[in-house]
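Postdoc handover notes: sequence design on the structure in folder B. Input tokens:
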């Protein structure tokens, strides 16, 4: 597959998550909640997670922003459901390193659609868009993790 067709595939995956976001909405029950924004571009994310017995059992988000920001939130909420807090924090680290253009060991976690965001590393101004939801996840899990300890 040529690079051009791979780039096209990645764009389609990002647009699919942007146009048909997974896990978009609010939770009514008690949930870990985090609100973050990117003042540079105006992206905003409100992330909610339900953590039971050290595992993320549900994750939802609302927000507004560019296609990369919202698609990344959609992909992230899909990826972390069912993971432990520690696994999720490792995934955040892996994703952050991937956004910095570092080679990462993708055998640790199946990245699936998240891999479509690898091209963002070529555009430094867009990295904050892609990482906003992940920073919210890290903050929420960090706050929640310290409460459980």
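Designed sequence:
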């Amino acid at each position: 597959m040529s690079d051009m067709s791979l780039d096209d595939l990645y764009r389609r995956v990002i647009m699919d998550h942007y146009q048909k976001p997974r896990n978009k909405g609010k939770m009514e029950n008690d949930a870990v909640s985090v609100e973050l924004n990117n003042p540079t571009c105006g992206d905003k994310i409100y992330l909610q997670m339900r953590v039971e017995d050290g595992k993320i059992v549900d994750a939802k988000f609302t927000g507004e922003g560019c296609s990369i920001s919202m698609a990344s939130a959609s992909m992230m909420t899909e990826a972390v459901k069912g993971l432990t807090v520690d696994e999720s924090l490792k995934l955040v680290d892996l994703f952050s390193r991937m956004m910095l253009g570092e080679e990462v060991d993708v055998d640790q976690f199946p990245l699936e659609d998240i891999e479509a965001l690898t091209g963002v590393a070529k555009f430094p101004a867009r990295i904050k868009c892609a990482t906003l939801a992940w920073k919210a996840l890290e903050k929420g899990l960090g706050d929640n993790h310290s409460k459980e300890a």
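Context for whoever picks this up: Residues 62 and 96 are 21 Å apart (CA to CA). Don't rerun without checking with the PI first.
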